[in-house]
Design goal:
Structural class: mainly alpha
Order of helices and strands: HHHH
Oligomer: single chain
Number of strands: 0
Shape: extended
Radius of gyration: 17 Å
Amino acid sequence: MRGKYSEQQKIATDKYVAENFDRIQIKVRKGKKDKISLFAEQNNMSMSAFIISLIEAEAERQGFDLSVPPTPSQTRENKKSDK
């Protein structure tokens, strides 16, 4: 069953994402997405992780704090690991 997951797993994953993540959508000129994807791949990162790392590096360079409180699930996980 590797590579497949049940409808219940999909629902649980969608719920987790909705509760723990915000979405940012950007538009780029046709063809640029492929170049950004290749650039990210050359840095061994997903496109999303690569863009986030660039934003975080620039925020740090400018002294801007991007930290946020932990999500509810991270708080639960931390409590479990403390036991």
